[in-house]
Amino acid sequence: MKKNIIVISLTFILGLASCSFTSSNFDQTDKDKLLLQLISYVLDQGHFVKKEINDDFSSKVFNEYLNIIDPYKRYFNKSDIEEFKKYEDQLDDKFINAEIDFFDLTYNRGQKRFNESKLIYEEILDTPFNYQIDENFNADFESLDYVKNKSEMKDRWRKQLKFSSIEIYDNLLEEQEKELEDDPSYVKKSNSEIESESRESTLKTLNEMYDFYEDITRSDWFSFYINSFVEQYDPHTIYYNPEAKDRFDVDMSGNYAGIGARLSKKFDKIEVVEVISGGPAWRQNLLEVGDIILKVRQNDQDESESTSILGMPIRDAVKLIKGPKGTNVILTIKKVDGEVVDLKIKRDIVLLEETYVRSSIVSKHENLYGFINLPKFYIDFDNSTSRDAAKDIKKEIIRLKNLGVKGLVLDLRNNGGGSLKTVVEMAGLFIQEGPIVQVRSMDKESQILRDKDRSIIWEGPLVILVNEFSASASEILAAAMQDYKRAIIIGSKQTYGKGTVQNVLDLNRMVRSNTNGDLGALKFTTQKYYRINGGSTQLEGVKSDIVVPDKYTYVDFGEKDQENPLEWDMIEPVSYEPWKSLFDYNKTIDASKNRMKSSEFISLIDENAKWIKSIRDRDIYTLNYSKFKKDLLLNEEKAKKYKKLSDYSSD
What distances in angstroms separate CA 530 from CA 51, 234, 435, 484, 503, one per listed residue? Predict the structure, then answer.
């Protein structure tokens, strides 16, 4: 996964004041060269990791950059790559010396190949596809070699376009069958007519995609080039050109009418990486992390008027998804299990109130239990009188105690983090006093953050729910409560596994009397945090005491599945006293695990998760329609088996 599935940080500080850089003179007058000089300096002085810039680094940058600009290997040919390869072990020096001749070569060649490819796909889509012959499409692009000649390039495009068209062909055939059932007077089209329509649809999508590609500027390309360097440090170190913030990571929550989702561009596809708590999509509970948005249409449009957003910049896709409050937008999405569905969502304002703490009471076996949902660790540092998560949790616990609850469940699922200060204060509600987390800076100095308030707001049984998308601040709280044996952690095998802190630096503040225009910003990693037992949450996250499988169990969504994550390590543990509980912590966990083993429902969830993993890992697809249809029907039957999971209930 080349881009970040979750963009979170415990501290989000804008400006040079947050970074202790020594003074330096930046003498480049060319903007591109100045950017390389600035970024090289900042990473050397400020990044948590001291990276060795050598030939190995250069080779990784070389391969990453080519993967960014030609991920499907359908633009550059083998002779292009051989010409580029003379730079493979030189990019480290060019990065340090702010030289851009390799970029200029690839940019100019890329523009030429891009224009040639349009002629190729137009020619291919002018000829009918033969769905009777046996041939396959390989979607494992990394395993493919670059083509040697025009004939091989044309065949690569042909298979990719045939793969795109065969699904449209099947959808059109199904739509026709429904029309025939509903309207006996409907005039049936021939298979050749439907095949022609499927190619026309593919051509329309490609033309729209190329219209968007033509809007990608040289500045955008240079951002790709820079990021092939900076992302070698870690997946959360990213350069943003002045226009890039909306393009690479868009938060669709806030004070406008949208659906309440965070999107990320991954190659030509736009993927949902977060569903914002309280937003329309969250309330509907149908859009999920990992869903790919294929098309967008407005409520007054029919399906033929849908706009494909394949290859579209995020900023343009967002314009289609946003609209007047109360109106509907219809998204065609590909689910994590491969199913393609249309989803109608009513646009609304995502209110801040919806992201605050919420609680409810559950009655079981004549006892009351409190359930608290915390969407994020919110706080307003500029207004001490405003609400913050720790204060709100405290109020809810007191209210639930007065109602006589016997136990408490804190739900941190899908909580991507927030304020470190809030985490420490919140942890203090459940213990008398003591260390909560250790933070280590790039100078390797460790700071221990402690709860110093001896009061305890809740002394009863505590359960914390987590999943693969519980990250950063959520992991700190869960880890601290687990180390103290204060809470039982229930959920996915482990949490996300992000144990790092980033700062964002406005690069314009680095240059006096800048005449080059807006230089953009650099986000880079400056700290790591550690559990009080000395272990990092980086990569490993927090392991649940009781594992409850879900559909994402085997899907690669965590920090460990990113490119170039910082390694897991340990530092010295700090002294702390485990919680003296009135119940047997380990016995309770073992009893629950035994119940889980005998659950038919849990086994079915795990089986479903493995099936989804197998679908997502599939690389070879048949281009013979009879076999393609047979595979679809088998998947549909399999999917029906797991539909009953949504109907499951348990007391």
Answer: 21, 18, 11, 14, 18
Q: How far apart are CA 476 and CA 497, in angstroms?
A: 10
Same domain as 378, residue 325: no
**Distances 636 to 337, 459, 629, 630 between C-alpha atoms, Å:** 10, 49, 10, 10
334 vs 103: CA distance, rounded Å: 35
d(C-alpha 357, C-alpha 365), whole Å = 26
Give the residue among 414, 400, 352 at the shortest CA–CA distance from 378: 352
Domain co-membership, 111 together with 218: yes
The answer to whether residues 331 and 460 belong to one domain is no
- Beta-sheet strands, E only, within 386-536: 407-411, 434-441, 446-451, 462-466, 488-491, 500-506, 521-530
- Expressed as residue numbers, the domain containing 638 is 603-647
Hey, what are 525's tokens? 């990693």
* Same-domain pairing of 473 and 542: yes
Instruction: Specify the pairing of strand 269-275 against strand 328-334.
Output: unpaired
In a domain, 432, yes or no: yes
Give the H or E element holding residue 631.
helix 625-643
Q: Where are the alpha helices (DSSP H) in 403-470?
A: 420-427
The reply to whether 338 and 364 lie within a common domain is no
pLDDT at 396 over 80: yes
The CATH number for 308's domain is 2.30.42.10
Residue where the block lists tokens 């390989």: 138
List of long-range contacts for 320-328, beta carbons under 8 Å, 24+ apart = 320/296, 321/252, 321/258, 321/259, 321/296, 322/252, 322/256, 322/257, 322/258, 322/347, 323/257, 323/298, 323/347, 324/257, 325/257, 325/349, 326/257, 327/257, 327/298, 327/299, 328/298, 328/299
Tens of pLDDT, residues 86-127: 999 999 999 999 999 999 999 999 999 999 999 999 999 999
Around Cβ 590, how many Cβ atoms within 10 Å? Answer: 13
Same domain? For 360 and 472 the reply is yes
Tokens representing residue 117 in the block: 């490819």
Owner of token pair 């804190």: 410
In this prediction, residue 337 carries a pLDDT of 78
Rounded (5°) CA angle 554-557-563: 120
